[in-house]
Amino acid sequence: MADTIRILVTLAEHADPRLVEQALDGDSSLEVLGYADYFDDWREFLEQPADVVIVACSAGDDSATQMVDRAVKHRPDRPVVVMTEASPNGFLRQVFEAGADDVITLPQPPGEVAFTIQKVIARRKGLMMPGKATAPLIAILGPKGGTGKTLVATNLAVALAQRDANVVLVDLDLQFGDIGLALGLSPERTMYDLMKAGPPFDHEKIDRHLIRHSSGVKVLIAPTRPDQASAISIDYLRDVYAALRTMCDAVIVDTPPGFTPEVIATIDVSGEICMVGMLDSLSLKNTKLGIETLDLMGYDNDSVALVLNRADSRVGITPDDVSTIVGRSPDVFIPSDREIPRSINEGTPIVASRPSSGAAKAFRSLADRYAKMPVSQPAPRQASSSGVRSLIGRRR
Ligand SMILES: Nc1ncnc2c1ncn2[C@@H]1O[C@H](COP(=O)(O)OP(=O)(O)OP(=O)(O)O)[C@@H](O)[C@H]1O
Ligand SMILES: [Mg+2]
């Protein structure tokens, strides 16, 4: 990185230029090449050889989203940072979806602004991506309880982390979340604490609320009490997802049984679904219903992985029967294994504790599916149903 960071500042319709000047002035590591406002000729302005574009705006200024979008499209390889006085619900999601790399809320203590901008640039250089990408969000669903969603979510996360992917696992089972238990993590900070910390949910704040597992997977733990669960709003979830997708290689969301409002909101912004069923007729009936519901929500078969758990159980239903009942063949078969409950008790998923087991192999083949997919663009599922970032061979 050059010693001085060259900055272009674009002012949204209602931005206060004095606040931005104050934030950038007096720091010798930052050099502002120029200011442009909403009505200026942007094409020429954005041609300048700057390292970063700052979009300054007032709280919830709609023109900011357009300006981020234009700056990203003009030079997709150059980072864009939003500077704002406050960020009402939904605003962060909009600017992240438009392609912003980070959001700085003013005022900030001296040095903080430069530090955030340096980090954004370093992160971009580290990624070496030809354009901006957002991480895939993989929702693990199972319309019936106890089918193995948490088992799949934890093992998939660790299998991807074993390939050096930077993975965030979100426990959306708001009432009875047990990811913390399954990974042996204590709930020192949870998604409730993050929500109480209040917006903006920027990278720094979110990162402080993620708990690290020894595999490298970072976990956003579910609230610890049911009354806290009811405080988690859909808007909050969308904001947090949007930010998470700009700060890691894959977001995996473990869900409660059924299509609760928060699960539907997750499906809505997700690009990839992993449906977990078991070899019993009730589970299979619900799996079929679930896949039909996803079809109605615009998901084609390519974006829905069907995982059959306890696939070797002798219960009078064969994998062929499954295809007939559900209407498609499973993509991955996970055998029953006595080591699985043991691995959960130890807090180390079987993909790490017994890597040569049949179950571990099945989880690695599920991870292959996500690791081999192409780069995605910063848009929700509607615009990019199957694109996800290539994880193979990546280094953090
Ligand atoms: N293939 C398997 N072999 C052995 N035990 C298994 C297997 N799959 C799941 N289990 C056991 O079944 C239990 C339920 O699994 P899990 O918690 O992953 O299900 P879930 O779908 O997340 O449940 P819930 O709907 O309650 O969240 C776990 O205790 C796990 O040990
Ligand atoms: Mg579960």
Considering the chains and any ligands shown, give keywords for the structure.
396 residues; alpha/beta; 5-stranded parallel β-sheet; elongated; disordered C terminus; binds magnesium ion
Structure notes:
The protein has 396 residues and is of the alpha/beta class. Helices cover 39% and strands 17% of the residues. The chain contains 17 helices and 13 strands. It has helices at 17-24, 42-46, 62-74, 91-98, 112-127, 149-161, 179-182, 191-197, 203-208, 226-229, 234-244, 261-269, 281-296, 319-326, 339-346, 350-353, 358-371; strands at residues 5-11, 30-37, 52-57, 80-84, 102-105, 137-141, 167-171, 211-212, 218-220, 250-254, 272-278, 304-309, 332-334. The strands form two sheets. It has an eight-stranded mixed β-sheet, with helices on both faces. A hairpin with a 5-residue loop joins strand 8 (211-212) and strand 9. Helix 4 runs parallel beside helix 11 (234-244) and helix 6 packs across helix 17. The model is unreliable at 127-132 and 374-396 (pLDDT under 50). The structure holds adenosine-5'-triphosphate and magnesium ion.
